[in-house]
Specification:
The protein is of the alpha+beta class. It has helices spanning 3-6, 24-32, 48-56, and strands at residues 10-15, 41-45, 61-66. It is globular and about 40 Å long.
Length: 69
Amino acid sequence: MTADKTKAKRVRVTWTRSTINRPEAHKRTVRALGLRRLNQTVEHSLTPQIEGMLRQVCHLVRVEEVESA
């Protein structure tokens, strides 16, 4: 296997839209992603669990793939 296949992809998640008037599950998901305030950015390894969380709140966050050095 090559190094690319063994290394997990990384994504940068930025919280861009408020969770006011959104379902409680969306609010909890944003918090579980490690986002505490608007325009905050965090990085995560792209696992199936993180993919599902991002899919649930895709209308509230911006996701960018991080290039590995």
